[in-house]
Design goal:
heterotrimer; A alpha/beta (about 600); B alpha/beta (about 550); C alpha+beta (about 325); A: about 600 residues; alpha/beta; 5-stranded mixed sheet; 25 helices; C: about 325 residues; alpha+beta; Ubiquitin-like (UB roll); Alpha-Beta Plaits; globular
Chain lengths: ~600, ~550, ~325
């Protein structure tokens, strides 16, 4: 389809890709006597990963991606327009239709909806610049609103009200909100000790507080010993799967296929989760240092940090940390005198929960739709750009600093035998002091809720959502459950991403349940039949129930079973677990009366 | 090649080759399914060079596109050769063992420095150099070409220059390496195989060789002429001199497909007697004294055709032909009968079996085997022979079981129709994806891709002429002129214009083209015409009828 | 690669290394249902109807793409397998028009006892599917089962897209793109249940990169993509597959030598396909081979069969893209 880009759209793309070159592809102004061109398939493969950044560039500066802009991007990157359209339309935050310059995405997900999110949406209903949003990762400061602003940086409003949202939409500004760490000052903190205690933009402050000692130590030790210590620590992934990190690192480090890649998964989108955001905003150098240690250990020269677009503050803090570290020789051609190269590049998501799934995330970096891959092969074998790749999430990675400094054996002493180290939990909902909490593995659910000041509202627990929308709801009979991988497994629960979202006993659970069903239907990538249709049928079953019919539990079970058994990825596998637990607890029926 | 007229490779080989030189071929439009195989190769890592004056849709997929001057192919080939030799990248062992004439060849290309090649081709010297190195050092490499090489006055030299490159680097006779001419018509290969060449009998057997001839004479009980016949360009010349006065045309449309078509029509009209056997009342058929309505060979009759990978495949009758139409075999047999020398009415399979008994290349290809195997590639010497994936593997055998393959020094000569102040624009002609040759067949279906025939010019030329897309212009060559709307094509460089050949009833491009032809193959130089373009003061909407100016009355 | 031996439903089978579980099943004559799998395309394993249970795996695995491994124990007919297959078919049948799928699919659906009606009455066709945005959907009352039903797209003379029949198997995208044609006129757009096959901005095929090779139609398993000739004959109730002959021949155009299967009804070519297992085409053709046959049946006054009139219908909107026809001599 023929449509030309505007000057503004062109400059947005050129600002990212550089001006078009005479013999390269897609140049609109070719020299008159051109006799040679370089392009073709291999170049299109090489440039494809720039598709999402280019779409963002236009969406950021103009507010939406027109047909002309899409065509221009496609010319520059040698991407077929139909594919680029398919990629753009995959991401909720990219608009393929003209829209107001400022757009508000109001969170009405499980944490925010009862804290005012739903009311804001109701109050502003009908405005073309206001849309409901899945969890924005600000559950401790609900309700939250994410603003996209054409030509300006995106921003987030917490503790939002209708009036404040209107104000910002009409040109008002949003104050910067520092992450809240209720335990600030507690000397036993490991992962959170710097957050709120120092200037997150200052490399000097970071160094003064012990920062970059671990990298120096890792360079001394060399990759093999670092990996040995990680293995000795028995550190398990904090993203939900609890896979031993040392095994991943070792597999990639030993792989003869080159190059190796590192990815830091910062696409934290599990409803109720905000831990990685707090770390990235409050201690960004720690993330950079951890990634650098990992990169050197696994023999990668490039690491990607994939962060969800809804975290603009974290992104700018991280970019600053990367730039400052590079300026000090801590990234780049000769990392900390190691003679080794390591670079970090930030990639921004586009509003797609599924991109937190590791292989979907890789597809997204590669400039494709964020559709998960079938496994095997696993990322350690065939990962980013088809190469061996280690992917860890933010919280997992920053544990590396203490492991390198203290040794894996010492680290393994923390927590329990199977769940070693410190663990972050995201407390929100009906608790006195919502926020991010760090404990050693082994504390019980009840202790965590107490740490957050206990239950508010009616003061009685209706249910606790554990692990996120992909987790389970439990009742107060689980308060004695130690929050470890092994105890959760034994009791049919999960720690997931460390979500502890407390609902009091007046909560409208059918409403919460419907929101979860809506979430999974909205966030299913649509690739495989069980999840694409199953999430719809699940939502329809609940809607029918909501309309007064008894829930067809057998059919629900059949739908849940096929999603769990036959879906490609974890989204489908877990799309029913939380809802099923609500049904099992009788909460769907009880609240109806 | 080297005495056998067939591409050396199978399509599957391009899927794993390392370097592909796609030379004078817009395969993506003219040979789309071959391009599927080629793209598999590219996706498997092959580096693709596209050598074409136009940046075609095929060239868009190339790692490097080289937009050389029309007709400078030999200059480019010789420059590549010189660079390969000068860099010591030629395959000395292969040259010594399997070829002859290298010294003379090396001497002939010696003047072709990168600088000189760059001057003649218009290409940057470093890019020519890079292509030379990539081709020479590749593990496997192929040169693929079509009419961009062969529709020139020096077509045979063009082909020989490419063959020389393969000999120089040893890129022939091995799996994945070779020389790949892709045929323009579904049975151009088969026609040649069957002896529809002036100097050959079926199976590429020399007509002047008494032993070969003897086999045919023995079977047919008739003498076979012992001298080569005439190819089409020579026939036209003979008509001009009154040496040919009668013509039997089977499935050709020379009244429209020949270069300088008005002249061709003039000659056809001057014949005393012409028979045309065709599916349609073509322009040629309209000039005929007798027209035999024919059945469509591919859908209404049985037989075989041979593809560009030497694969003989069955065509089968799916439809009853309409009206009085009969298949070609029946018509020819009936004609023989009327002439008093009838041989009855053999089936296609009976004729094929006779061919098998005379052509060793085809001996093993029974109809049964052809059906079972999905076609067989010649040579296939007996019923146990699996057919042949690639040719000339014997060049690598030790001792060499055949004559060494000769190098042919090829002098470069510019296109005959020279550019001048009066005719400053180089017009080249070609094909589009949805259409085919003079459009007699492809015009019959509704194609959403079809556009009116236009003269395509570079944006700068359009601007210089003061014409916009759709404006009517007159294109004038030394031989005639046509009127056509302008289409601005960003992929053309200034000074280069393009016209498709598919709609001669609307715009008779071949009124412009030159009938200078290659003395060895008889192919005319469709690809290089000198023209000027004159804006007209009316737009295409008001245009009434065709206004083509020819030197001969219609 | 070395051979591997595995057990399928308790029967040992040895297959070449690199074989899939599906290959192993087929080697035993134990065929599995597939929808998105085709021998000439890269497996995308999205339909999940071929899933099997592999000992030691938490979830079921797609047999079409999972490599067979030494010692694997595969169950193709366990309760979990039967359940998943039944549900996948039901999910599709309750949301997509499936009345043109092949007989094998119908047989598998019967075997697994599919009952698509139990999800409620299907929703009416919707005209807005091409404009739906990722991350948002209209929440219905749940009394009807959401479908992909929508108006048929007829925007050219050669083919018709009826996405009410689309199960999103990705085959057309693969054939149009990297597995054969490298045209990339279509891709998957949207997300979740609103994911769909689309050109850029849902532009008509004639404004897209489409080159009308018809290779998408050649691989479509549900009749969502259909030749205009077949569509018009079906609309007129005159499509008679049982009365058609299929004859293999070679294309009359360029010298590549593509195998054509001519589907003939009443002495008229009504459809052209190519054999998937032939090394020249792997089932794929170009516009000329697929559609360029009409000249042999451009018969002027000789065209008297009842289907001629129907076949001409497709050309009514040809917008001058057809040359004045030359009648047969």
């Amino acid at each position: 389809m023929s449509a030309e880009a505007t000057t503004a759209e062109r400059s947005a793309v050129d600002a990212l890709l550089g001006p078009p070159t005479p013999s390269g592809d897609g140049e609109p102004s070719q020299p008159a006597d051109r006799r040679v061109a370089f392009g073709g398939y291999h170049r299109s493969v090489e440039s494809r990963h720039l598709l999402l950044p280019a779409l963002h560039a236009v969406n950021d500066s103009v507010g939406w991606v027109s047909a002309g802009a899409l065509n221009y991007i496609c010319e520059r990157l040698l991407v077929p327009p139909a594919e680029a359209y398919g990629v753009a339309g995959f991401y909720a935050l990219l608009s393929l239709e003209e829209r107001p310059a400022r757009v508000a995405h109001v969170c009405d997900d499980v944490a925010c909806r009862t804290m005012g999110g739903a009311e804001i949406l109701e109050g502003l209903e009908g405005r073309p610049d206001v849309h409901p949003s899945p969890c924005l990762g600000q559950c401790d400061q609900a309700p939250a609103v994410f603003f996209q602003r054409a030509g300006e940086e995106d921003t987030v409003l917490v503790g939002a009200t209708c009036d404040r949202v209107t104000e910002v939409l009409e040109g008002g500004s949003v104050g910067e909100v520092p992450p809240v760490v209720p335990q600030a000052g507690d000397p036993s903190l490991r992962l959170l000790r710097r957050i709120g205690a120092l200037d997150p933009t200052s490399l000097e402050d970071y160094r003064e507080s012990g920062g970059y000692q671990a990298l120096a130590r890792a360079v001394e030790m060399g990759p093999d010993r670092v990996i040995a210590e990680i293995k000795a620590s028995d550190l398990r992934g904090r993203g939900g799967a609890a896979f031993p990190m040392g095994i991943k690192w070792e597999a990639v480090a030993r792989s003869p296929a080159l190059p190796h890649y590192l990815i830091c998964n910062a696409d934290e989108s599990e409803p109720g989760t905000f831990k990685d955001r707090a770390i990235m905003e409050g201690d960004p150098f720690a993330v950079v240092e951890s990634m650098t240690i990992a990169g050197l250990a696994i023999g990668a020269e490039r690491g990607y940090l994939y962060i969800r677009a809804e975290y603009p503050l974290a992104q700018s803090r991280l970019q600053n940390a990367i730039d400052r570290s590079r300026a000090e020789g801590l990234l780049g051609a000769d990392v900390a005198g190691s003679g080794r190269t390591f670079e970090i590049e930030i990639r921004r998501g586009g509003g797609a929960y599924i991109c937190g799934e590791e292989t979907a995330l890789m597809e997204s970096i590669e400039g494709k739709r964020g559709e998960p891959r079938n496994k095997p092969p696993f990322p350690t074998q065939v990962g980013l750009f088809g190469r061996p790749t280690v992917i860890n999430n933010v919280e997992t990675l920053i544990n590396v600093l203490d492991i390198v400094l203290e040794g894996g054996a010492a680290f393994a002493e923390i927590g329990t035998r199977e769940s070693t180290g410190p663990k972050l939990f995201c407390l929100s909902g009906a608790v006195e002091r919502p926020g991010l909490y760090e404990v050693e593995f082994g504390r019980t659910l009840g202790e965590l809720i107490d740490l957050a000041g206990g239950v508010t509202g009616t003061g009685r627990i209706g249910a606790v959502m554990l692990g996120g929308a992909a987790g389970v709801f439990v009742r107060d009979d689980h308060l004695d459950m130690p929050l470890t991988f092994e105890d959760a497994r034994a009791r049919g629960a999960t720690l997931g991403s460390g979500v502890i979202l407390v609902f009091d006993d007046r909560t409208d659970f059918p409403d919460i349940t419907k929101r979860i069903a809506r979430f999974f239907r909205d966030e299913s990538c649509g690739q495989c039949v069980p999840c694409r249709v199953g999430t719809v049928r699940q939502e329809e079953l609940l809607a029918r129930h909501d309309g007064g019919e008894p829930l067809d539990e057998d059919l629900f079970e059949e739908v849940a079973q096929v999603m769990m058994d036959a879906s490609i990825c974890g989204l489908g596998h877990t799309a029913s677990t939380a809802i099923r637990s609500v049904i099992d607890l009788g909460l769907l029926e009880r609240s109806r009366g | 090649m080297f005495g056998v007229g067939g591409g050396t490779c199978s399509y599957e080989e391009i899927e794993t080759t390392d370097v592909i030189l796609l030379w004078g071929s817009n395969a993506r439009e003219a040979h789309p399914i071959f391009f599927h195989h080629l793209m598999k190769g590219v996706r498997n890592g092959a580096k693709l060079y596209a050598i074409d004056p136009r940046r075609t849709t095929s060239a868009m997929w190339a790692d490097v596109w080289l937009g050389l001057e029309v007709g400078s192919d030999i200059a480019l080939a010789n420059t590549l050769a010189r660079e390969i030799i000068a860099s010591g990248l030629h395959h000395e062992e292969f040259i010594r063992h399997s070829t002859e004439g290298f010294e003379a060849y090396a001497e002939s290309v010696e003047p072709w420095t990168l600088q000189r090649g760059a001057e003649i081709t218009g290409l940057p010297p470093e890019v020519i150099g890079r292509m030379a190195h990539d081709y020479a050092t590749a593990e496997q490499a192929q040169i693929c070409w079509t009419l961009g090489i062969t529709e020139h006055h020096n077509a045979t030299d063009n082909v020989l220059a490419l063959i020389d490159l393969a000999l120089l680097t040893g890129h022939v006779g091995r799996y994945g390496s070779g020389l790949v001419p892709i045929r323009g018509q579904n049975n151009v290969q088969g026609g040649g195989d069957m002896g529809a060449l002036p100097n050959r009998l079926p199976g590429f057997q020399e007509i002047e060789d008494p032993v070969s001839r003897g086999k045919f004479e023995a079977l047919w009980g008739r003498p076979v002429p012992d001298t080569a016949g005439k190819h089409l360009s020579l026939m036209l010349e003979a008509m001009e001199h009154g040496e040919i006065t009668a013509l039997y045309v089977i499935g050709e449309n020379p009244a429209q497909s020949e270069a300088r078509s008005d002249h061709a029509r003039h000659l056809l009209r001057g014949l005393e007697f012409m028979v045309v056997q065709d599916l349609f009342m073509t322009r040629t058929a309209e000039l005929a004294d007798v027209v035999f309505p024919a059945a469509a060979g591919w859908a209404e009759t049985d037989g075989t055709v041979t593809s560009s990978e030497r694969r003989v495949q069955r065509v089968r009758k799916a439809l009853d032909p309409p009206g009085e139409a009969r298949d070609d075999l029946h018509i020819i047999s009936a004609l023989a009968e009327r002439m008093g020398r009838g041989w009855g009415y053999p089936t296609a399979e009976e004729v094929w079996d006779e061919l098998r008994s005379l052509s060793p290349n085809h001996a093993g290809m029974s109809y049964r085997r052809l059906a079972e195997a999905g076609g067989l590639q010649w040579p296939c010497y007996d019923e146990d022979h699996p057919g042949t994936l690639f040719l000339h593997g014997e060049l690598w055998d030790d001792p060499l079981p055949r004559d060494p393959a000769p190098f042919f020094p090829t002098p470069w000569a510019p296109p005959v129709d020279e550019l001048s102040e009066e005719y400053p624009i180089r017009l080249t002609t070609g094909r589009r994806l949805d259409s085919y040759n003079t459009g007699v067949q492809s015009g019959g279906y509704s194609s959403p891709l079809r556009t009116a025939v236009a003269v395509e010019v570079a944006p700068a030329d359009g601007a210089a002429l003061g014409v916009a897309e759709g404006d009517l212009v007159r294109v004038v060559s030394r031989r005639g002129s046509v009127e056509a709307p302008v289409m601005v094509d960003r992929s053309l460089r200034p000074g280069l214009a393009f016209m498709a050949v598919h709609d001669p009833d609307e715009v008779d491009v071949n009124l412009l083209t030159i009938d200078a032809w290659d003395p060895k193959s008889g192919t005319a130089e469709f690809k290089a015409t000198a023209v000027r373009i004159e804006p007209l003061q009316e737009d295409v909407e008001q245009r009434s009828g065709v206004r083509s100016v020819a030197n001969y009355p219609a | 690669m070395a051979e591997v031996t595995l057990a399928v439903d308790g029967t040992a089978v040895t297959v070449p290394g690199g074989s899939t579980i599906l290959d192993a099943c087929r080697a035993l004559g134990n065929d599995q249902p597939t929808l998105c799998y085709l021998d000439n395309l890269t497996p995308v394993n999205v339909c999940r109807v071929c899933v099997v249970e592999v000992e030691g795996n938490r979830t079921l695995v797609p047999s079409c793409s999972r490599p067979a491994e030494e010692g694997m124990e595969v169950a193709t007919d366990s309760d979990r397998v039967r359940h998943s297959r039944k549900m996948v078919y039901e999910f599709l049948a309750s949301s997509v028009e499936l009345d043109l799928v092949d007989e094998e699919t119908v047989a598998w659906m019967d075997r697994y006892g599919c009952d698509p009606d139990r999800y409620g009455l299907p929703t009416d066709p919707s005209g807005d599917r091409d404009r739906r945005k990722a991350g948002h959907h209209r929440i219905g009352p749940g009394t009807e089962a959401e479908t992909v039903h929508q108006p048929v797209k007829v925007d050219n003379e050669l083919y018709v897209r009826d996405y009410s029949r689309c199960i999103l198997c990705y085959k057309c995208v693969e054939a149009c793109g990297e597995d054969a044609q490298n045209t990339f006129a279509i891709a998957v757009a949207g997300r979740g249940f609103d994911a769909r096959i689309s050109t850029e901005f849902d532009t008509g095929l004639t404004d897209s990169a489409c080159v009308f090779c018809g290779n998408c139609i050649g691989v479509c398993p549900t009749g969502a993509l259909m030749f205009r000739s077949e569509y018009e004959l079906r609309q007129a109730g005159m499509w008679e597959e049982d009365g058609q002959t299929v004859t293999r021949t070679i294309c009359s155009y360029c010298g590549v030598g593509c195998n054509l299967d001519l589907h003939v009804q009443d002495n008229r070519i009504v459809k052209v396909t190519s054999p998937m297992d032939h090394s020249v085409t792997s089932g794929h053709l170009c516009i000329k081979g697929r559609f360029g046959y009409e000249y042999v049946q451009e018969l002027g006054d000789l065209a008297v069969t009842p289907i001629d009139e129907i076949l001409r219908r497709a050309r009514i909107d040809d917008r001058g893209r057809r040359r004045p026809p030359k009648s047969r001599a």
